[in-house]
Design goal:
411 residues, alpha+beta, six-stranded mixed barrel, 18% strand
């Protein structure tokens, strides 16, 4: 089979280098460095993707995807408005709500709280997996009943059946004041998200509307979509359809800082782990420079036979390309195997070494999730291969500058 001269000589040098101690070690180090770097990047990015999806799922478990709220007063025509919104094919549910910010007090304990007024039947449908049915029944039948997030209840030191005071700030005649309202704890829920478990409380829509002085009307409508990632797009469409009468917000705006921080973390982890590939690239430079020094006479002979400097450059470029390509491919395979089996590998490590990586009393997420994205599997290998190619430039150009007369002076 025909092969260009540069490829033929490049592969010969590569095979010959495997039989030399130092050069062989440097070549193996380059190969392993690139493979481990690519595998580590794929695994870490997959785990970060999994955590992002897990956090998003937990946050949206008790948060509307889109909020349509009135500017100053309640929504008097909320039923007809809800029907218009629910008529869209991408909308799963539309529920009325009221939101209030205040403080919960039990004795000397005081905690900030976000009180959300919902209809008990909506809560049973949307939060049924998070809230005990008996607590939902108590919320529906009792007056002044409240459901607390798990850690909010722990911070206050309260249990179902106990009383708490809800302090709501008000401004009357230019003076700020706060009036306590007594509630009985109907139950505790665990959403698995810090924002919900540490500061969210649920009351009936009727109670919240009275406290907000909305005359029994809801403050807004919570819209849930079949695809939460389309929330910004659907928000703009609703704004055009319903007009500027209402205020439109999406969960991407509400939690923008959190997910921005997660994206920054992902970028920083990518940069840090890319240094592994960078170290491997320096090993490629070192190994190729050693080959160039050893093969100066061979290069000089090739030059005297008329081989152009550009073709000499390509000989050593082939060696670096092979190391980079094989290392990258092995890294991709290893990374994908690890990323798709994190749920098996992590429990095995925990049982073998007798420790928990993410104990439940410290972390909300107790299992390490993994979600492989096609873009990561494409971008990471291309980045690693590009770095390895850049590393071959100097040794290759150094080989092309070998002077035949100097190299063969004593031959």
């Amino acid at each position: 089979m025909f092969r260009p001269l540069e490829c033929f000589i490049g592969f010969r040098y590569l095979r010959a280098g495997q039989r030399r101690g130092v050069v062989s070690f440097m070549t193996a180090a380059s190969f392993l460095g690139i493979a481990l770097g690519v595998a580590a990047l794929i695994v870490i990015l997959s785990v970060l993707n999994g955590f992002e999806t897990e956090n998003r799922t937990r946050l949206l478990s008790m948060t509307e995807h889109i909020g349509v709220t009135a500017t100053d007063t309640g929504l008097a025509d909320w039923e007809s408005l809800a029907a218009r919104v629910a008529a869209r094919g991408d909308v799963v549910a539309v529920t009325p709500f009221v939101e209030l910010e205040g403080m919960l007090a039990v004795g000397k304990e005081l905690n900030p709280v976000l009180v959300r007024g919902v209809r008990p039947e909506d809560a049973a449908t949307e939060y049924g997996e998070l809230i005990d049915a008996a607590a939902l029944t108590a919320l529906a039948t009792g007056e002044r009943r409240i459901l607390l997030g798990r850690f909010l209840a722990l911070n206050l030191g309260v249990e179902p059946g106990q009383a708490v005071n809800l302090w709501l700030p008000r401004v009357e005649n230019g003076r700020a004041s706060a009036t306590p309202v007594a509630f009985t704890i109907a139950g505790v829920f665990a959403a698995g998200a810090p924002d919900h478990d540490t500061r969210l409380a649920l009351v009936t829509l009727a109670d919240a509307s009275v406290l907000a002085r909305l005359g029994g009307e809801p403050q807004g409508l919570g819209v849930r979509l079949a695809d939460p990632l389309r929330a910004p797009e659907v928000t703009e469409e609703l704004a055009r359809e319903l007009g500027p009468t209402y205020i439109y917000t999406s969960w991407t705006e509400r939690y923008a800082s959190l997910f921005r921080a997660m994206r920054v973390e992902k970028v920083m982890m990518t940069i840090i782990l890319a240094f592994i590939v960078g170290v491997a690239a320096f090993n490629i430079v070192t190994s190729l420079m050693m080959v160039v020094n050893e093969k100066e006479k061979d290069i000089a002979i090739l030059r005297t036979y008329g081989l152009e400097p550009a073709r000499v450059t390509r000989i050593f470029f082939v060696q670096g390309a092979v190391i980079g390509a094989v290392g990258t491919l092995v890294g991709v395979v290893l990374g994908l195997v690890l990323a798709f089996n994190v749920h098996v590998i992590v429990p095995w490590l925990e049982s073998t070494f007798g420790f928990r990586i993410m104990p439940g009393d410290v972390f909300y997420v107790t299992e390490i999730p993994s979600e492989v994205h096609f873009a990561d599997v494409v971008i990471v290998p291309l980045l690693a291969f590009a770095i390895s190619m850049v590393a071959t430039l100097y040794p290759s150009r150094r080989a092309a500058r070998v002077a035949p007369a100097r190299a063969l002076r004593y031959e």
